[in-house]
Amino acid sequence: MPKEKYYSVRMRAAKNGAHEQGGKHISGGELLSTYNDLKHSIDILLNKALTHSRGKPDFMQIQFDCINEPITRIKPLPIKTNQVNSVETGQALCRELLALAGIRKEIIEKVYTNLPQYEVTRGAVLIDIQSGERIDNREEKGVRVSRMDWINANFEKWANYYKMPKNLRMKEALVLATKVCAHPNTIAELCWSDDPEYITGYVANKYIGYQRITQLKKSGDERGCRIFFVNCQKNQKSYIHYLEKQPVFIQWEDENGTQVN
User: Fold this and answer.
1) Any idea what job this protein has (predicted)?
2) Where does residue 105 fall: left (phi above 0), alpha (psi -120 to 50 degrees), or beta otherwise?
3) Is residue 259 very low, low, confident or very high in pLDDT (cuts 50, 70, 90)?
4) How far is Cα 143 from Cα 111, in angstroms, rounded to an integer?
5) Model confidence at 46, in pLDDT bands (50, 70, 90)?
6) Which alpha helices (H) appear in 17-148, and where do they start and end?
7) What is the C-alpha to C-alpha distance for residues 120 and 132, in angstroms, rounded to an integer?
8) CA triplet 196, 143, 198: central angle to 5 degrees?
9) Which of 44, 77, 177, 226 is least enclosed by beta carbons within 10 angstroms?
10) Residue partners of 155: CB distance under 8 A and separation at least 6
C-alpha cells in the first residue's frame, strides 16, 4: 500500500500591502498536511492571521505544495521554563545561556548592539559565530524556516506528560527550534516574538535544550528577534536549503522508549 502523501501549507499576512511592497508583517505559519486535512490546515492558518494582535491584514497568501522528499523525524528538544521577574533579568539570562551554548561573550554583545538593525527582519538572521556578522544577505526578508510540523495527537501527549500548554504558539516554537538546532551548523538560536501581547522568548541549543524565558520584552512592544548563531562559512547554501526545504516531523517518545503515535 503506498504511503500517504503530505503537503507543505504556508501562510503569510501583512497590512498596507504585501511584504514586498513595504507592508507591515502581521503573521506567518507552517503546517504539514495530508490531502484530506488540507481544508482544516488552511482554516487554522487563516484564523491565525485574521485574529493576530499585530493588526488586521489586508494582504494574505496561503499556498501548499506536495512533498516528494523523505520526511525526517526528530525528537523534540528538552524543555525548561525559566521564570524571571523583569525584562532585564530575562535578557541577562539570555546572555548566560548563549555563553553556555558556546557563543563567545564578545560575539553576544556585538549581536545585542546590532539588534535594532534586525528588528524589521521577517525571517531569521544568520550570525557567524566567529565574526558576529550577519551572513545571510537576505535584508528584511531573512531566512524563513519551513516544511515542518508535529502531529497534534503526539504533541498533546507530550504536553500532558510535561504539563505544558497545548497551544499552537508553543507547538510552532518548539517545532521550529527543534528543526533548526538539529542541524550541526546551528550553534544556538535566540528568539522572542513580534506579537505585542506575548513577552516570553527562548534560547535553544542541542545541548541545553529549549530554554523558555518568561520576560524578554515589555508588553505592547512589537519588536521581535530571531537569530541563528551558525558555523557555516563553507556550506551556507546547503544549510539554508535544509532550513527552507527539508521536510521534518517532530516525534516524541515516552521515557520508556516507546514511540507514541
Assistant:
1) Catalyzes the transformation of pimelate into pimeloyl-CoA with concomitant hydrolysis of ATP to AMP.
2) alpha
3) very low
4) 17
5) very high
6) 38-50, 87-100, 105-118
7) 19
8) 15
9) 44
10) 166, 171, 250, 252
204 burial level (CB within 10 Å; 0-12, 13-18, 19+): buried
Question: Which residue pairs, CB below 8 angstroms and at least 24 apart, start in 201-204?
Answer: 201/90, 201/94, 201/225, 202/173, 202/177, 203/94, 203/97, 203/98, 203/101, 204/77, 204/177, 204/178, 204/180
Q: Would you say 53 and 196 are in contact if contact means Cβ atoms under 8 Å apart?
A: yes
Report yes or no on whether pTM surpasses 0.85.
Answer: yes
Compute the residue count for the chain. 261
d(CA 151, CA 175): 11
Angstrom distance (rounded) from CA 16 to CA 11: 17
Copy the grid coordinates of residue 205.
Answer: 541549543
Q: Residue 139: what pLDDT?
A: 86
Q: What is the DSSP string of 145-173?
A: --SEEE-HHHHHHHHHHHT----HHHHHH
* Extents of the domains making up the chain: 6-68, 76-147+171-245
